[in-house]
Amino acid sequence: MDARYLTPRFLHACRMVGRCLRGGPPRPQPRRSALAQTRLLASLEVRRLLAASCMLAAVAGCATAPETGRRQVLLIDSAQEAQLGLQSFQKIKQQTPVSRDRQANAELQSVGRRIASVVSIPNAHWEFVLFESDEPNAFALPGGKIGVNTGILPITQTEDGLATVIAHEIAHVTARHGAERMSQDLIVQLGGTALSAALGSQSAVTRDLAMQAYGVGTEVGVMLPYSRTQEYEADRVGLLYMARAGFDPTEAVGFWERFQSQNRANGASTPEFLSTHPLDDARIAQIQRFLPQAMAEYEAARP
């Protein structure tokens, strides 16, 4: 090329054409602001938590409740569940006086053992304790720990009535409702953590309002209905257990009708969608629906 053409202007033009052909020089990356970095980290955290949630969801369906075949999410093994139940039961026995009524205790042990003999569950060491408390209540803890308050005895009235209560609580244990509830709590906590991470760049007021709404939504929309599902399931399976042990399942209706009368006398009127337990009318209707199957078991168990 003739040197006279190699002027500064010509050389500059050549460099510009070359840049265009190559797509131009690499552009300097703008520095992210602190807010942008926070949002990026929050997004990555949400993705990580969502991936963990998917792994937890994959566990769903790996277990089924006995008798009903309902699918369950169980993230806690039975041995760990039983140990937690034992620890909780020991604390309750330390804090609540145990009844010294010999006749009532003997009846509780007799009914409890009869029903426990017709079920099978690993890591269960059955223990039936009568607590001195006016509150008409009974409860079950993982590992076979059953507590009954003296306040419920005037409502049970008969062995069959007491069997209704104990069989219901034993059904909670065999269906592993404690582990199921703890597993659900873990999943809900994970969702709350993901939401908190996603809101990391928002104002404190916005974060608080969102977390409060999340708490109310999960409690009413997820946690409470799930508990009612477990209660209905324990009613249904409990009928079968008491029938197989030789107790008349029709007495369950009488027990819940008496319980309903006491609730009405005490003015208990919590709306069902805010109650962890089904309302009495709905519960009695469900029990009557499942009675034919239980009666067939009862007739088969009779000598």
UniProtKB/TrEMBL annotation:
GO terms for biological process: proteolysis involved in protein catabolic process. Residues 103-289 form the Peptidase M48 domain. Binds 1 zinc ion per subunit. InterPro entries: Mito/Outer_Membr_Metalloprot, Peptidase_M48. GO terms for molecular function: metal ion binding; metalloendopeptidase activity. Pfam families: Peptidase_M48. Keywords: Hydrolase, Metal-binding, Metalloprotease, Protease, Zinc. GO terms for cellular component: membrane. The keyword Chloroplast does not apply. Its cofactor is Zn(2+). Belongs to the peptidase M48 family. This is Peptidase M48 Ste24p. It comes from Thiocapsa marina 5811. The lineage of its organism: Bacteria, Pseudomonadati, Pseudomonadota, Gammaproteobacteria, Chromatiales.
